[in-house]
Design a protein that fits this description.
By secondary structure, the chain is an alpha/beta fold. The chain has three domains: about 210 residues, Up-down Bundle (Growth Hormone, Chain: A), CATH 1.20.1250; about 220 residues, Growth Hormone, Chain: A (Up-down Bundle); about 250 residues, 3-Layer(aba) Sandwich (Rossmann fold). It contains 26 helices and twelve strands. A hairpin with a 4-residue loop joins β1 and β2. α7 runs antiparallel to α8, α7 packs antiparallel against α11 and α9 runs parallel beside α13.
């Protein structure tokens, strides 16, 4: 169905006001929605770099973002307490707000960096991933983001006030008019930022693009306000003068019911979005394009529903929407089908079709949200702001409930079902009340029969669909606020999966990650650090040297699986040399003063995974340099088979620009990735015989435990004979910039790979 601008159907009160003005307002909100989504995506990513890569922290930042929107929507009422400003003044105030939003492109990155410094200073008040840390991070994020988000939320009632005073026919549904434009813009912002802007310009320059567009809106709004004389006495009525225009209570219920329905729908919708991401990740992967696809499907469905509502409202009363709640409830259960691993085989090229399972729910939510706001407000911008704020309040609570309560305790399936319960409650309540409805078109027994059918259909879906872990015979499953972790045997091989994505296997590569730099170190190692625990193989290998070893992993449930993969895990964990820390590796180093002889990084695959660039960036290497002792060595493993030449060159540039001495070796099998060794002093690599002689007997036994060689000397030879030229790696893509926090080359590659467009 092609999208088009909706007809405003206006009745003009002043000859100077034309349909073109309303089209301008629609265009303003399309662009504003585009910018808002760009800010949301980039701010979340900048917050990850400063506060830690963690699902729960993302939920907190998202809730802060939504909280600002709600506060702004509700807060404009104080401006209107002394009477409604003229449309000219309202337009200019709207322009000032858009200009202020544009300034955030310059200010927010510095605010988040300052917030990181505050968290480091206050780290004694809240250990990583403790409730204290989450509270502190939430407060810092609120201080940094809330003022700008409040301005974003204020744009709805401000522009509604202009429409209210200039066009009567559209004024009662002005919220839905702007809501449709805003969601359409957000859809374009999702696709534009993920597939074009960030790859071309990086995060900060993408913010500049959004800020420039906000400034353009402000300039156009000011110009529009000077070209129309809309402040005549004809339009000087206040909302009290137009009280009679407000609609009757929806579904013959108290008017305040609409606010509770908006709160509930917001809570359920945003909570389900968190659940959907966890459900669909095993099929779509962890790349930014997968998350963008889920968000785009969500917004596309919302656009369709909002557009359908505006057409439907022309010929129906709002009370005829009772059955939509039953449809919404059953649509919320449909993703169980899309996330069923036992579906008939779907070719990898069209596996994204699974995401279409969320579109029916989003379309119905997009239909009901503007309906409820229009019902409550009848075009009154203050009341619309209150209604929208109620919806946003639910949007704040939903992700927090999903991340911190339901998903860790229940998993994806029953979290989804729990979120569906209030929708079925509303649908059942309205269906029963329909039996006594005064309006024949709004009542009767059909809604009740439809509700009963929906309950039966849900029961069938729950019985017939399966969770992802049912693919394995005897899986061990652990859930926390970050991920669902599965340890299982698949095709005679033990696997570790995080949110359904395979992390690693029992391979000699992970032993090389520890033993190679430890043996090359010119003096006896005193301690070491492993960033990313995985199956625990590199940690186990480092401990075999008899040195204090710290392993840091982001996800609490991953180290719990150590014993599944290694029979001696319990003995190793009891060792006084073994220390396992649940933390973001970068944040851990930021808050630590300890120095290490060897630091090894084993980033989780795939290379393009969202957030993975933070473990390959120049900024991260600068942090590591501060924690290496003299002659200390960093080992950064890069699974080359997952990437392409531009990514390889970008990572090689980042590490060579950060360290004066770098050497690179392809792994033992010639296709298992690259071991980058970096130091502030020259790295002398002695013969394999000398390396083997430096190893304690326990380390030698560990090194050859899985072969392929039977003794350490031959095992080292397999890698030392595969040294790579860093200049050659970089020359494969010389124009590619060094990987940095602001330039995540490995994560954004569509334009480069598909169309040959480089920065």
């Amino acid at each position: 169905m092609p999208l088009s601008f909706p007809e405003p159907a206006v009745d003009l009160q002043d000859s100077s006001v034309s349909n073109n003005c309303l089209y301008w307002y629609f265009a303003f909100f399309v662009i504003s929605g585009f910018c808002g989504l760009v800010y949301e995506v980039v701010w979340i990513r900048l917050a990850m770099a400063q506060f830690g890569v963690n699902t729960a922290l993302v939920s907190i930042v998202l809730s802060v973002f939504m909280g600002g929107l709600g506060l702004g929507s509700w807060g404009v009422r104080f401006i209107h307490r002394k009477g409604l400003p003229s449309p000219t003044h309202s337009l200019r105030l709207y322009a000032a707000v858009e200009l202020t939003i544009g300034l955030s492109a310059l200010v927010v990155p510095f605010e988040l960096h300052f917030g990181r410094e505050l968290l480091l200073h206050w780290r004694g008040f809240g250990a990583w991933q403790s409730s204290g840390y989450f509270v502190l991070a939430g407060c810092v994020a609120a201080l940094a983001l809330m003022p700008w988000c409040t301005c974003m939320g204020a744009t709805f009632p401000l522009l509604m006030a202009v429409i209210r005073r200039t066009a009567t026919s559209i004024s009662k549904s002005s919220f839905s008019y702007l809501y449709l434009a805003n969601v359409l813009g957000a859809l374009l912002g999702t696709l534009g930022s993920a597939f074009i802007l960030i790859e071309l310009f990086g995060f900060r320059h993408t913010l500049f693009v959004a800020g420039s567009l906000n400034t353009l809106i402000a300039a156009l709004a000011v110009r529009l306000s000077t070209k129309q004389s809309v402040s005549s006495s004809k339009n000087s009525t206040t909302y009290k003068d137009r009280e009679g225009e407000r609609s009757q209570p929806l579904y013959e219920l108290p008017q305040s019911t609409a606010l509770w329905l908006l709160f509930t729908s917001g809570l359920v919708s945003m909570g389900l979005e968190v659940v959907w991401i966890r459900q669909l990740t095993p099929y779509l992967g962890t790349e930014v394009y997968a998350f963008a696809g889920i968000l785009a499907a969500y917004l596309f469905g919302t656009v369709l529903g909002s557009r359908d509502y505006r057409r439907w409202a022309l010929s129906h009363s709002l009370g005829e929407s009772r059955s939509s709640w039953t449809l919404l409830a059953i649509a919320a259960v449909l993703p169980l089908i899309a996330a069923d691993p036992w579906l008939p085989y779907i070719h990898s090229s069209i596996v994204g079709l699974r995401v279409l399972g969320i579109v029916p729910y989003c379309a119905l939510a997009g239909f009901l949200t503007p309906l409820l706001v229009d019902s409550w407000s009848a075009g009154d911008p203050d009341r619309a702001g209150t209604a929208y704020a109620a919806n946003i309040a639910g949007c704040i609570v939903g992700p927090l409930i999903a991340s911190f309560l339901l998903l860790p305790a229940m998993g994806e399936r029953w979290s989804l079902v729990t979120f569906c319960v209030p929708l079925f409650g509303i649908a059942g309540w309205l269906s029963l009340r329909a039996l006594g409805a005064r309006q024949p078109r709004e009542g009767g027994s059909r809604p009740l029969f439809g509700f009963i059918a929906a309950i039966l259909a849900t029961a069938v879906l729950l019985y017939q669909t399966h969770d992802f872990e049912t693919l394995f015979k005897t899986p061990q499953v652990r859930r926390d606020y970050s991920a669902t972790v599965i340890a299982a045997e698949y095709r005679a091989e033990k696997r570790l999966l995080v949110n359904g994505v395979g992390m690693t296997s029992l391979t000699p590569i992970t032993k090389y990650i520890a033993h190679l730099p430890l043996a090359i170190l010119p003096s006896t190692p005193r301690n070491g650090l492993v960033i990313c625990f995985g199956m625990g193989t590199s940690f186990r290998s480092m401990v075999s040297w008899g040195i204090p070893t710290t392993a840091v992993d982001l996800i609490p449930s991953v180290p719990v699986m150590f014993g599944y993969f290694h029979a001696d895990a319990e003995r190793i964990e009891r060792s006084p040399n073994a220390h396992i820390v649940i933390d973001d590796g970068r944040r851990y180093l930021d808050g630590s003063t300890e120095a290490f002889d060897v630091i090894v990084i084993d980033p989780p695959p795939p290379v393009p995974a969202a957030g993975s660039s933070l473990l390959y960036s120049r900024e991260f290497y600068q942090v590591i340099k501060r924690h290496l002792r003299p002659h200390g060595i960093l080992q950064a493993w890069y699974p080359e088979g997952y990437g392409e030449s531009a990514t390889t060159a970008s990572i090689a540039k980042a590490i060579t620009e950060s360290f004066p001495y770098v050497r690179a070796f392809r792994s033992y099998d010639g296709r298992g990735g690259i071991h980058f060794l970096a130091s502030m002093e020259k790295i002398q690599v002695p013969s394999s015989e000398v390396l083997a002689s430096r190893m304690p007997s326990t380390a030698s036994s560990d090194f050859v435990e899985w072969g392929p060689a039977r003794e350490p000397k031959a095992q080292f030879d397999l890698v030392l004979s595969r040294e790579l030229s860093l200049e050659q790696l970089i020359a494969e893509s010389p124009k590619t910039p060094a990987l940095a926090d602001d330039q995540p080359v490995n994560e954004y590659y569509i334009l480069r790979s598909w169309f040959g467009i480089a920065r």
